[in-house]
Amino acid sequence: MNFQVTVLKILVSYPDGFAVMEDLKRDMAILATSGRDWADRTRRLAARVPDLDIFSQGLVDRESGGWKITAKGRAVLEFMESRLAAPEPIQAPSVEEVVPAAVPPLRQPADRAMRRRERRREARERARANAS
User: Fold this and answer.
1) Which end of the chain has the lower number of beta carbons within 10 A, N or C?
2) Would you state the pLDDT for residue 104?
3) Domain count of the chain?
4) Which residues of 9-31 are buried (b: 16+ CB within 10 A; e: fewer)?
5) Rounded-to-integer distance, Cα 126 and Cα 105, Å
6) Domain range holding 11?
7) Segment Disordered: which positions (predicted)?
């Protein structure tokens, strides 16, 4: 499992992109035990931006007891998740090349909350299935 990609994915699912450390740790534990699919997915996403460093590149800020994804972090995550026409990128761009000049509009909070609830439900179901 790629820690940095997982942090970005968790933070983007929270309202305003902010989560306290307790919630981050809980969500990280759920995803870490959810099986090989998550580890493979984060590894593939991380391969799209090989020089990823969420703190030094300003993708995540540390704020009063938690972490918050920045607009730049959202843009990099969106790039990592975008599908390419070609099966493999010829050369992965640096983080600076990925971030557009204008930040795209943010998704509506209700959509993020709904996706977050769905992901948590799926993670619980996988955990139950793996425990059996």
Assistant:
1) C
2) 55
3) 1
4) bbbbbbeebbbeeeebeebeebb
5) 32
6) 3-131
7) 101-132
